[in-house]
Amino acid sequence: MGRLADLLRSPFSFLGARSSQEERVAAYVIREHERGRTLAEILDDPYVRNRLTPQQAERLLDRPEIIRAFAEHDVAAEKATGRPPLD
User: Fold this and answer.
1) How far apart are CA 54 and CA 49, in angstroms?
2) What is the maximum span of the chain, computed from C-alpha positions, in angstroms?
3) Long-range CB contact pairs, 73-79, < 8 A, 24+
4) How many CA atoms lie within 13 Å of 10's alpha carbon, on the beta-carbon side?
């Protein structure tokens, strides 16, 4: 009954809300990426597939911390090649 009361008090609160489950999966994705795994491998993990719906997994990719973690890794990898950018 408490959830119904919360919904009636703020009917659109769910639009910007992130579940703690999504927070834990986002942390897992970043941690596994830091260990050298690809995004495809991580998203195919049973841990991720069992905890997120396809819509939540898609929304996960829009999170700034996920984008930042993968972008920083890609930039660092590109710098490590020693090639000048835009060859």
Assistant:
1) 8
2) 62
3) 73/33, 73/34
4) 8
pLDDT tens track for 3-27:
555 545 545 444 544 578 899 999 9
Copy the structure tokens of residue 28. 């897992």
51/24 Cα distance (integer angstroms): 10
Predicted pLDDT of residue 25 = 94
Query: Which 3-state string (H, E, C) describes the chain?
Result: CHHHHHHHHCCCHHHCCCCHHHHHHHHHHHHHHHCCCCHHHHHCCHHHHCCCCHHHHHHHCCCHHHHHHHHHHHHHHHHHHCCCCCC
Residue indicated by tokens 């830091």: 34
